[in-house]
Specification:
single chain; 138 residues; alpha+beta; VC0802-like; 7 strands
């Protein structure tokens, strides 16, 4: 359930995302999850990769501003209200969600959800006790 996520600050400039993903591809690094939030001047790319240390080192060598963060990743059933249960439980236990992103695995109809929370250890413990599944595919 505990996953390392890499955040990269990118100039909001044409081709910058393509450049970064090409660098990773050339080094054989697989991106398992990706989200980006942007403003008019820059974006924050958040990725989960198969080799965190190699990715962090490589991107720093290319001059990218990089940070590594612990996030929580779970699998939920892809049904109406599937996301409401873990979000409600986190709230009821005083755990704040700073951001969230999710994607669907069509093969087994499971949604993979990544949470950035204010208390990772408490969130992991509570979600395990509540029977949520670890996102093994990340």
């Amino acid at each position: 359930m505990l996953v390392k996520q890499i955040s990269i600050f990118l100039e909001n400039k044409e081709g910058r995302l393509a450049e970064l993903t090409s660098i990773l591809a050339e080094e054989g690094i697989n991106i398992n999850a990706l989200t980006i939030a942007d403003t008019s001047d820059f974006g924050i790319l958040r990725i989960i990769v198969d080799d965190v240390k190699k990715t962090e080192k490589l991107l720093k060598e290319y001059g990218f501003s990089v940070s590594v963060t612990d996030v929580v990743a779970i699998d939920i059933d892809n049904v109406p209200g599937g996301i409401a249960r873990p979000l409600s439980m986190l709230h009821e236990n005083g755990i704040s969600v700073e951001y969230i992103y999710a994607f669907l695995a069509k093969k087994d109809d499971t949604a993979h959800v990544i949470f950035k929370v204010n208390d990772v250890e408490a969130a992991v413990s509570m979600l395990i006790e509540s029977g949520f599944r670890n996102t093994a595919k990340l």
